[in-house]
UniProtKB/TrEMBL annotation, chain A:
Pfam families the record matches: ABC_tran, oligo_HPY
Keyword Transport: yes
Family (UniProt): Belongs to the ABC transporter superfamily.
Organism name: Nonomuraea longispora
GO biological-process terms attached to the record: peptide transport; transmembrane transport
Domain of life: Bacteria
Protein name: ABC transporter ATP-binding protein
InterPro entries membership: AAA+_ATPase, ABC_transp_ATP-bind, ABC_transporter-like_ATP-bd, ABC_transporter-like_CS, Oligopep_ABC_C, P-loop_NTPase
Entry keyword set: ATP-binding, Nucleotide-binding, Transport
UniProtKB/TrEMBL annotation, chain B:
Gene Ontology terms: cellular component: plasma membrane
GO BP annotations listed: transmembrane transport
Organism: Nonomuraea longispora
Topological category with respect to the lipid bilayer: Multi-pass membrane protein
Keyword set, alphabetical order: Cell membrane, Membrane, Transmembrane, Transmembrane helix, Transport
UniProt record similarity statement: Belongs to the binding-protein-dependent transport system permease family.
Any matching Pfam family: BPD_transp_1
Cell compartments where the protein resides: Cell membrane
Transmembrane region(s): 12-30, 112-134, 146-170, 190-210, 250-276, 296-319
CDD domains associated with the record: TM_PBP2
Start and end residues of each ABC transmembrane type-1 domain: 110-319
UniProt-listed PROSITE patterns: ABC_TM1 (PS50928)
PANTHER family linked: INNER MEMBRANE ABC TRANSPORTER, OLIGOPEPTIDE TRANSPORT SYSTEM PERMEASE PROTEIN APPB
This protein's name: ABC transporter permease
Automatic annotation (TrEMBL), chain C:
Membrane topology, from the record: Peripheral membrane protein
Localization terms from the record: Cell membrane
GO cellular component: plasma membrane
Protein name: ABC transporter ATP-binding protein
Length: 270, 331, 269
């Protein structure tokens, strides 16, 4: 079943040049895709290819210049009021820049509880206990619930963003580079959590990432973007095993690897 | 941009129309009969009817209101035949007390209020921002604590207390300043300055205290931003780091507040003008309220609303220039 | 030849409401000229605090103890003036989280230009040219026009490259890069790594490179420092750390790397 359908989404940014001349730049160009219920769709691609812009459009944080957006079969492109509030409750975003997306004047506890308050949801148990539980799930020390964002490291701040998105039990979570600042072991733990939630509660994810190995682990389908367009969209096995597009092939070829000789020696010792 | 401006302009007109309508309802239909007021003590029913006719008070409410509203833009005639009086646009009627054209009264008094407002604004911006900035940079030191303590105290002194105290000390006791009078600058610059000094000080005190606290809080928040760390990592001089990277982000939100405060002041500083006997819009408002001079009350209300609404638009436009993230881009 | 950067027994302490907390404990390492030291480790293990301490930019409430010497200059004991001369010119840093690290009120061109002019002087026009060149070097498309744009008008990876261009504009002898390529796709990342390697070879730039991407570290670092909970658990040549890790944590880390060639499990069915 289709949860979200984006059709011909286009975003043009207009900027003023030095002489007052206006220049329109098409950051996202007629992008269409579906997100099915309970699936993970990964979006990978060139830096500056329009991944975050697409994410902001499907989260309704940015008005598309053209195109339509459907959520659960309902056209939400121009949704307002109650329909928009419902949409916001169902769709959560983990942003690419952790510090800029957390209110510096609020404690973690308050940040984590804010979505619950907006949506009018009462957590089981007290708010404080709920916040601590969320922190624990993403590997943060629950004793730090009264700290401010600036008192955390980059990867810790990123996990606050993840915990906030999971707080309201959304149907769709859009993760924009959500695990890029995490060390591999914490990353594995967070990915495991995301997967478990998918199994238990049927979450869908739109997972934007540059780490192709992570993408390969977590996604069922992959969209590859370059210069504002989706150049390839297919199952994970197909995109990684039999890439059709030239850009996808370049991308796969550029993945850095640890010297295989070192790897072999390490395995032998173990 | 053009579409945005057109939208805002339509909004302004609509709001001013509604303000007009409500003040008209309040002052003309809910207050004592104007004709009786004008007529005074020695009055006959015929005389009242005559006044009603001239002012158009015998007409139904919509016609009365339209007459008033149209008068603002097109002017209007009162009475007929030999008694006809033409009131040129913008017509706000005539004072019941002095029979003067209300518009002329406004034009005459507005410069006084503007002088008071501008002078005070310059003072409070300067003092408030400098004190706030110093406090923020020296956060936690004795200077910071003293300045903020003073600011907290200063903003809780009522204006009339400060005005009376200043007047008593400077004019009556020490006699270093003359009693304020609204002389134009061109007549006697020295006297002009001396006359306005006290009103400026009185008005500026409260605002300066408020702005010092606002500035301090904003600068402290900005200094903790990650981009300030980047600025420090560049090895820029501390002065440049502070001026360029901290001041602009910290002061931008203050322009919004300042715009609204200033616009409100242009509509007249009631208490200060009255205490110092300056013939500005504020004193005119106080006098007209005391004497229930309805056309004048309406005019000052409209004027205040006008400044606030226009101030709002200006603030928004200025803000979009100051903060690149909210610049309006046409789609 | 003496080492470019010497860090000895560096300890960073935060004074918190519950008393002092050491977030970096007795870390020691050296960076030679044209050498790259990679720092890897747990999220929150004190990697960023270590680099901020070297720059003398620790946040309020944090204090550093130990020794940090850049080219013989004692950084921890330097006067503010001496520090200012070092920063941006002799040593520079690429910060984690580029969006919040750029001032939203100024164009990126100006933000790089002011750094260049603070140390090299010259006219604005001349500086502008250098800036455009620096932006081109990191692969930002259309650098002449984009120098006049504000940070929010760029993508995450573009901002990261702007931070890199800024750090490199004065050709520092020491570059501290805190996760400089997390927002870059692998092709652009490869391009940036090549650029950094070239600079290292040509101008002898020393580098401290922090990342979670162990494959990147293995390809760029000469020596590797592994951190956990503020402590240095392992320090050695890249080959030794990757091929013969001594500490359990390092081994665990290397085992958790998701590998592109691993067989896929049930999810993708
Ligand atoms: N507000 C804006 N004004 C003008 N151009 C913009 C704006 N926001 C984004 N862009 C441009 O649109 C393009 C797409 O940006 P987007 O952030 O979607 O890229 P991305 O795929 O997320 O890249 P990355 O992987 O680097 O984060 C970029 O070239 C960017 O410069
Ligand atoms: N202001 C503060 N007060 C108290 N503790 C702090 C403060 N700022 C940071 N910390 C703590 O210091 C520790 C080290 O932070 P640091 O930013 O150096 O981690 P990191 O290794 O860079 O992690 P990451 O990979 O997630 O960026 C973290 O555990 C963090 O919670
Ligand atoms: Mg992005
Ligand atoms: Mg860090």
């Amino acid at each position: 079943m289709t949860l979200l359908r984006a059709k011909d989404l286009t975003k043009r940014f207009v900027s003023r040049g030095p002489l007052g001349a206006k220049a329109a730049f098409t950051a996202v160009d007629r992008v269409s895709f579906d997100v099915r219920l309970g699936e993970t769709l990964a979006v990978v691609g060139e830096s500056g290819s329009g991944k975050s812009t697409t994410a902001r459009m499907i989260a309704k944080l940015l008005e598309p210049s053209e195109g339509t957006l459907e959520f659960e079969g309902e056209d939400v492109t121009r949704a307002k009021g109650a329909a928009l509030a419902r949409f916001r409750g169902n769709v959560q975003v983990v942003f690419q820049d952790p510090f800029s997306s957390l209110n510096p004047r609020h404690t973690v506890e308050r940040i984590l509880m804010a979505p619950l308050v907006y949506q009018g949801i009462a957590p089981h148990g007290s708010r404080r206990a709920h916040a601590k539980e969320l922190m624990e799930r993403v590997g943060l020390d629950p004793d730090h619930s009264l700290r401010y964002p600036a008192q955390f490291s980059g990867g810790q701040a990123q996990r606050i963003g993840i915990a906030r998105a999971l707080a309201v039990n959304p149907k769709l979570v859009i993760c924009d580079e959500a695990v890029s600042a995490l060390d591999v072991s914490v990353q594995a733990q967070v990915i495991e959590l995301l997967r478990r939630l998918q199994h238990e509660s049927g979450f869908s994810y739109v997972f934007i990432a540059h780490d192709l190995a992570v993408v390969r682990q977590i996604a069922q389908r992959v969209a590859v973007m370059s210069k504002g367009r989706i150049v390839e969209l297919g199952t994970t096995a197909q995109v990684f095993g039999d890439p059709r597009d030239e850009y996808t092939r370049t991308l796969l070829a550029a993945i850095p690897r640890i010297d295989p000789e070192w790897e072999r020696r390490r395995r032998e010792r173990a | 941009m053009a579409r945005y401006l057109a939208g805002r302009a339509a909004g302004v007109v609509l709001i001013l129309f509604l303000v007009c309508l409500f003040t008209f309802i309040i002052f003309f239909t809910l207050s004592p009969d104007p004709a009786v007021m004008i007529c005074g003590k020695t009055c006959t029913p015929e005389r009242i009817d005559q006044i009603r006719g001239v002012l158009g008070l015998d007409e139904p409410f919509p016609a009365q209101f339209l007459g008033f509203f149209a008068g603002i833009f097109a002017g209007r005639d009162y009475g007929e035949g030999a008694n006809l009086v033409h009131c040129a646009a913008p017509c706000l009627g005539y004072s019941f007390q002095t029979n003067q054209s209300v518009w002329d009264m406004v034009v005459e008094r507005l410069p006084v209020s503007a002088t008071v407002a501008i002078g005070a604004a310059v003072l409070w911006l300067f003092i408030g921002i400098v004190a706030g900035l110093l406090s923020a940079v020296k956060e936690g030191t004795w200077w910071d604590r003293a300045a903020m303590g003073l600011a907290l105290g200063g903003s809780s002194i009522p204006n009339y207390v400060l005005a009376l105290a200043l007047q008593y000390v400077l004019v009556v006791q020490l006699q270093v300043l003359p009693f304020p009078q609204a002389v134009p600058f061109s007549d006697d610059p020295a006297l002009w300055f001396q006359s306005y000094l006290m009103p400026w000080l009185v008005l500026a005190t409260g605002y300066a205290c408020l702005y010092a606290r606002l500035t301090r809080a904003n600068v402290i928040d900005t200094l903790a931003e990650n981009f300030m760390r980047t600025a420090r990592s560049k090895g820029l001089s501390p002065a440049l780091t502070l001026r360029r990277h901290a001041l602009r982000p910290a002061l931008t939100p203050i322009t919004t507040i300042f715009g609204m405060d200033f616009a409100a002041l242009l509509g007249g500083a009631l208490i200060t003008e009255t205490v110092f006997g300056l013939n500005g819009v504020g004193k005119m408002a106080a006098d007209s309220i005391a004497k229930n001079d309805q056309p004048v009350i309406m005019a000052v209300t409209l004027l205040a609303a006008f400044f606030v609404v226009i101030g709002n638009v200006v603030v928004d436009l200025v803000y979009t220039r100051l903060d690149p993230r909210v610049r309006i881009t046409a789609r | 030849m003496s080492d470019l950067l010497v860090v000895e027994d560096l300890t960073v302490t935060f004074s918190t409401a519950r008393g002092p907390v050491d977030v970096v404990k007795d870390v020691s390492f050296t960076v030679g000229r044209d050498e790259t030291v990679g720092i890897v480790g747990e999220s929150g293990s004190g990697k960023s605090m270590t680099s901020l301490a070297i720059m003398g930019l620790l946040p309020k409430g944090a204090a550093a103890r130990g020794t940090i010497r850049l080219d013989g200059t004692d950084v921890l004991g330097a006067s503010p003036r001496e520090l200012r001369q070092l920063r941006g010119d002799r040593m520079s840093m690429i910060f984690q989280d580029p969006l919040s690290s750029l001032n939203p009120y100024y164009t990126v061109g100006l933000q790089i230009e002011e750094l260049y002019r603070a140390h090299r002087g010259g006219s604005r026009a001349a500086a502008r040219e250098v800036v455009v060149g620096a932006l081109r070097q990191v692969g930002l498309p259309d650098p002449e026009r984009r120098a006049g744009h504000y940070p929010h008008q760029f993508s995450g990876g573009q901002r990261q490259r702007i931070m890199i261009a800024m750090a490199l504009v004065c050709s520092p002898s020491l570059l501290i890069a805190d996760e400089p390529t997390t927002a870059l796709d692998v092709t652009v990342q490869a391009q940036i790594l090549r650029l950094l390697a070239d600079l290292r070879e040509q101008s002898g730039m020393g580098m401290v490179f922090i990342t979670h991407d162990l494959a990147v570290i293995s390809s760029i670092a000469t020596r590797v420092l592994v951190m956990r909970r503020g402590e240095q658990v392992e320090y050695g040549t890249a080959e030794q750390v990757f091929a013969e890790p001594r500490h359990d944590y390092t081994r665990m880390l290397l085992d958790s790397i998701p590998r592109i060639d691993d067989p896929l499990d049930e999810v993708s069915a």
